[in-house]
Amino acid sequence: MLNNKRHYLLVTIIVLLSLVTAACGSSNSGGNGNKNNSSGKETAAPSATAEPKQEENKAEGGKVEGGSVVVSIPQDLDYLDPHLAVAAGTQEVLFNVFEGLLKPNEKGELYPAIAESYEVSPDGRVYTFKLRSGVKFHNGNAVTAEDVKFSYDRLAGTATGKPLSPAFNSVESIEAPDASTVIIKLKENNTSFLTSLTAAVIPNGYEDSNKNPIGTGPFKFKEYLPGQRISVEKFADYYVKGVPVLDKVEFRIITDPEASLLALKSGEVDIYPRIGTEKLEELGDDFQAVSAPQNLVQLVTFNIDRKPFNDIKVRQAINYAVNVDEIIAGVALGKGTKLGSNLSPVLAKYYQEGLEDTYATDIEKAKSLLAEAGFKDGFETTLSVPSNYQFHVDTAQVIAQQLGKIGVKVKIEPVEWAVWLERIYKGRDYDLTIIGLDGKLDPYQILNKYLSDSPNNFFNYKSTEFDSTLQSAVAEVDDAKRVALYKKAQTILAQDAAAVYIMDPNLNVAINKKLAGYKQYPLYVQDLSTVYFTN
Known about the structure:
The chain has a domain of about 240 residues: Dipeptide-binding Protein, domain 3 (Roll). The protein is about 25% helix and about 20% strand. The chain is α+β, with helices and mostly antiparallel strands.
């Protein structure tokens, strides 16, 4: 529940919003740097053979080698095994431990990691990779093509027929003709496939990833205490010279945002990602502050298999009743980009503008739609919210007030993160929930969770029109046509009121002033490889 001060702030802002017009500017941190092309030879940006280099960040004082940093995270990890992990909060940590053939940079561009170069056949179905020499696993063994084959066969389920990752559904076969060559053949052209190859490569035959993970990243696993922390340490044999600078990083699990704030102020924590805007402003000039759109979609999802949300009129009524501008102003204090579908304008090339106005707040229309659906007097429902994300809890408070105006009585159910993952995400046992869906580098990887047969479709959304549109988009070779299809897919979700799309909330990060080199990504990651202390 909100404390009195916070509640007063929210109510005050909402009242003010009724007197003045509040608009959330469309923030854009740049277009999508992913340069997929399904015809001819292709190399990854910036160069297929370029050695990854550490980018120097200008900062006062000199760079100090070594040191330990503590990062506050609000949730426990669901798995240490990168192929089993589904939680975005897990991926943000494991980004430091694992790498794939390719890797994203802070602009969202793909560049070679374990791979040194690659080519794509003219028909877009055959990908040939040459591995970089000198890449080692954290156990000291050199990475070979057999390791890549094992890892991606595991994700594609080539032996079991059950892929661990939907991104590898289109894989027909993976070959390792020699120690430094990997050939991946697809069943059909898939323009989003390159982004899938950021998936972790693990040692051939390794079955202990969930207890003692071994990757090729700049940091190697040291210790994991469930509910407390995961610690990683510098990998001295990392193939990029001068990376990382830090000796150790501890990701400390602190579910209470007030406790995280106190730990930051006391010096126990050095980096506090996803800090609330109000708390960030409270810190003043005592810490570095970073805030920018993060390619994430905050939304209220319906369990569409459950009455009354199987009725589109009910879903539309709720959309008309929810005032997104109030939520952005009251919860994000203006630091959020209003959305109308499940894509952020961070992916500017594919973003369909104007959908954010599809359900301009209209209480009378919302009441009318409910009456048409047979709920003239409204109904009762439960809104389940992961309790470790205060931002979502605060959003739930405002939405409950707003839906009360149309007779929908909302019971807010705070649930622990592990419960949310198991009961709601996997079990699909809920009425409504609020969550932030992390962005990817390619629109297909973001939107494919809405496919009728997707194992990640915890909304239980089904649309043959959406399915055919998205499948056509991912197979379309012509760039302009592909973009148009992705925009159409977003429009279908909005028209079907598949969810209540709220905002891409800015990623706020508070950082110890003695640190430099921190980078923000259009992905849900914490990259500590370039962070260092200054004199």
